Amino acid sequence: xxxxxxxxxxxxxxxxxxxxxxxxxxxxxxxxxxxxxxxxxxxxxxxxxxxxxxxxxxxxxxxxxxxxxxxxxxxxxxxxxxxxxxxxxxxxxxxxxxxxxxxxxxxxxxxxxxxxxxxxxxxxxxxxxxxxxxxxxxxxxxxxxxxxxxxxxxxxxxxxxxxxxxxxxxxxxxxxxxxxxxxxxxxxxxxxxxxxxxxxxxxxxxxxxxxxxxxxxxxxxxxxxxxxxxxxxxxxxxxxxxxxxxxxxxxxxxxxxxxxxxxxxxxxxxxxxxxxxxxxxx
Length: 282
Prior knowledge:
Elements: E1 72-73, E2 76-77, H1 79-89, H2 101-122, H3 127-130, H4 140-159, H5 192-211, H6 215-218, H7 238-267
Antiparallel strand pairs: 1-2
Domain DinB-like: 112-255
Pfam families: DinB_2, Pentapeptide
Protein name: DinB family protein
């Protein structure tokens, strides 16, 4: 297999080309046109499909997890149906969209409860299993490390004003460029208890914020942090910050449960379970 890297082929025409099992990473195909192209069995991950127009396509046995909006299939916007069904299947899900201070307190009650259940589940796994990755995604321990980072970034830094709240075990998202002084140690292998101690401290910080939250404060903005780091130095809407944290907590808990199910099935010699309903991509 040959590697083609850092080459601008804008406007190139490919005709009667076989790219079976090819790998595309950091490739720009915006505005491209595909006609009589076979994508059967292809895997798309972290792909920007906004504005996609598909006509006369064969869509069968397809599994899509995505952040979706304005998705029309055969002339019907299916998003409201999907959202309503996900809310029906996951009664706590609508609580992650609070509109007032009391709603944020209720939402954080849910986060604490469901993560407590997931941690108890995780304690039934071996240390090696808690560091095991599924399909290249983060391990359970790495997921917890990322949530420590998310809280440090959005609550401790953006909301509470600490310019450098980082712990050495913080794990930024993979797509984020290195941003000193934010740490990024991908090789660290802390124990579950070490990471849970950090998590308990950060979750307590969020609890203090939501317990003292008022509707007036929720509609306000933060004082800008001036020192470099992540997120970038500027003022942020308090509501945006807290919704970001709820989204991170809700989604990563789903990822964790999904992947623990796969790890468990593999340990017992079974096939990987069917994908969990309502788990969008990382």
